[in-house]
Amino acid sequence: MNNIYLDNASTTFPKPKNVVDSIYNFLTNIGGNPGRSNHANGMQSNRLLLEARETIANFFNFTNIENVIFTNNITTSLNTLINGSAKKGDHIITSSMEHNSVLRPLINLKENNIIELDIITANKFGFINVDDFKNIIKPNTKFIILTHASNVIGSIQPIKEIGNLCKQHNIHFILDSAQSAGVLDINFKELNLSALAFTGHKSLFGPQGIGGFIISDELNEICNPYILGGTGSLSHSLIQPNFLPDKFESGTLNMPGIVGLMEGIKFINSEGLNTIYEKNNFLRNYLISELNNMKDIILYDDLDSSNYTSCISFNIRNLDTAEVSFILDSDYGIKNRSGLHCAPLAHKTIGSFPTGTVRLSLSYFNNKSDIDYTINSLSKIVK
């Protein structure tokens, strides 16, 4: 039995060798705590932390490295940005394709009568219409918060058009890049972003437990820190520092994770972002075309590969979703995910609620033989 990993939308595996080596090297040879100690190991950690901020800022075309904030994952990043920025009476717009990392904080604010919330319904293929956003903007609309690409079917949203709309109406634009960073080009300035939330362990090839966000100076002025505590700076004061990055970085940072994330981005830069996208796209096209010709396979996309990342959702007619997922893993060694993928409204949008879908998500480390084996395995299950 083969061992094929197709759960990369959850977390990429394997990781590049330089990522693994960098974490091992930090833990065995450096180990210092940045911003807390002046000994040689602490200073070496400081230098690595600065290099990591520079690497991330350059990767997303952002200038001020102090505006690069590290958290433990993108969920923490989004909660910080949403709960720290939303004020009483604000109107916020999002979409039906969002992950619960966006939806749950927003629904919580709405239910506590803090914000007005509109959720724009995408079409059955998972795409939003920019005109729907134009038509619902109010004088008190302060934020549009969107995922760049769906974690259910990989649909890529018209982010540049939404960014232009936000600029025209002086609306803050917060982007969830969990499924797009490391696969699609994300230019902070060109997209008119106010904040970009990212996570390390998906297509940026870093380890679990590291994420962060980049915040514009304008949004920083109104965004309050979500977690308060020690920063290594202004230790005499009982008030949280108001300067970046300390304002949002309380407690010891995950330096092994930060180093691994930095090396993941270096790997992407060395391979080429376009090279990674083209390979993923080729494998997705091949898999989609074969599945589309397979009897009783239900696919949830419009078959136009240019509008999707390498994430595919499907079901097999008259078979339970969880059972298909289990058989793929137990009988064929194909690692996948089934269910609602923490995005219930997305499944309602594409017509797969409440059972959800089987999701196959590709990575740069997959190859054509992986896809051939997967196609053959699914063919046997269908038969």
From TrEMBL:
<dbReference type="Pfam" id="PF00266">
    <property type="entry name" value="Aminotran_5"/>
</dbReference>
<dbReference type="InterPro" id="IPR015422">
    <property type="entry name" value="PyrdxlP-dep_Trfase_small"/>
</dbReference>
<keyword id="KW-0808">Transferase</keyword>
<keyword id="KW-0663">Pyridoxal phosphate</keyword>
<protein>
    <recommendedName>
        <fullName>cysteine desulfurase</fullName>
        <ecNumber>2.8.1.7</ecNumber>
    </recommendedName>
</protein>
<dbReference type="InterPro" id="IPR015421">
    <property type="entry name" value="PyrdxlP-dep_Trfase_major"/>
</dbReference>
<keyword id="KW-0032">Aminotransferase</keyword>
<dbReference type="InterPro" id="IPR016454">
    <property type="entry name" value="Cysteine_dSase"/>
</dbReference>
<dbReference type="InterPro" id="IPR000192">
    <property type="entry name" value="Aminotrans_V_dom"/>
</dbReference>
<dbReference type="InterPro" id="IPR015424">
    <property type="entry name" value="PyrdxlP-dep_Trfase"/>
</dbReference>
<feature type="domain" description="Aminotransferase class V">
    <location>
        <begin position="4"/>
        <end position="373"/>
    </location>
</feature>
<comment type="similarity">
    <text>Belongs to the class-V pyridoxal-phosphate-dependent aminotransferase family. Csd subfamily.</text>
</comment>
<dbReference type="InterPro" id="IPR010969">
    <property type="entry name" value="Cys_dSase-rel_unknwn_funct"/>
</dbReference>
<dbReference type="GO" id="GO:0008483">
    <property type="term" value="F:transaminase activity"/>
</dbReference>
